[in-house]
Automatic annotation (TrEMBL):
The protein, known as: Glucose-1-phosphate cytidylyltransferase
GO molecular function: glucose-1-phosphate cytidylyltransferase activity
Highest taxon of the lineage: Bacteria
Organism: Azorhizobium caulinodans (strain ATCC 43989 / DSM 5975 / JCM 20966 / LMG 6465 / NBRC 14845 / NCIMB 13405 / ORS 571)
UniProt KW keywords: Nucleotidyltransferase, Transferase
Length: 257
């Protein structure tokens, strides 16, 4: 199964970092957050990625084109025009970076990468700015077992997020401003059947609006509850918190060896 990562937004709430680079390349520790996200998926056996680029997307292309260079010691033989890599820890990933437009909405970005997906085959999708210790393989098994069109990782919200009401294992509605109780929010880490792309009209479609609402109305959006660690990186404060966790050796999302 392929993994689609939405990575094209401007990241304006993290402008201290994103004025010079796209948010997925903002580093936690010494590696970009998109590397952390991919490492989570690769740990569970999913190592083919489609990155929906947009804002400063050429930097994402350059990062992956030179990933071995970034993470290896090198000897540059100028006379022979050769580069020798030492102690390379390059991951076994296949990464397609697709320019999905500068101002395209989340749903539109997803629709634009349709040619890179396999018809009739489900795929994984998440945002390029959030990490979690979610068991992706277990979520995929859950998705296959219930037989619905979509599965959303449902996480316990910090108070500033809108939430989802869940009945049984299905999302029954969304709440813009939750009050109290056991409501959960969209944590990304979706498992989607290929035909959900038919719910997306054009570049202006917001995935979290009409497509998700349509899936809810049809009873086709399942909730995979995740009670472990989940954190977005929307602000400088959140980036600093994630960085501190990583540097302390206590990053809960580091599920790989």
């Amino acid at each position: 199964m392929k993994v689609v990562i939405l990575a094209g937004g401007r990241g304006s709430r993290l402008s201290e970092e994103t004025s010079v680079r796209p948010k997925p390349l903002v580093e936690i520790g010494d590696k970009p957050i998109i590397w952390h996200i991919m490492s989570i998926y690769a740990h569970h056996g999913f190592n083919e990625f489609i990155v929906c680029a947009g804002y400063k997307g050429y930097q994402i292309k350059e990062y992956f084109a030179n990933l071995v260079l970034h993470h290896s010691d090198v000897t540059v033989d100028l006379g022979r025009n050769l580069v020798h890599y030492h102690q390379s820890d390059k991951p076994n990933w296949r990464v397609s970076i697709v320019d999905t437009g500068l101002d395209t909405m989340t749903g539109g970005r997803l629709k634009r990468v349709r040619p890179y997906l396999t018809p009739g085959e489900p795929f994984l999708m998440t945002y390029g700015d959030g990490v979690a210790d979610v068991d992706v393989a277990q979520e995929v098994a859950f998705h296959k077992a219930h037989g619905l069109k979509a599965t959303m990782c449902a996480v316990a919200p910090p108070g500033r997020f809108g939430s989802a009401n869940i009945e049984g294992n299905k999302v029954s509605s969304f709440v813009e401003k939750p009050t109290a109780g056991n409501q959960r929010i969209n944590g990304g880490f979706f498992v989607l059947e290929h035909d959900v792309l038919d719910l997306i009209d054009n570049d202006d479609t917001v995935w979290e609006a009409e497509p998700l609402e349509s899936l809810v109305a049809e009873g086709q959006l399942a909730a995979f509850p995740h009670d472990g660690f989940w954190r977005p990186m929307d602000t400088l404060r959140e980036r600093t918190q994630l960085d501190e966790l990583w540097n302390s050796g206590r990053a809960p999302w580091k599920v790989w060896a």
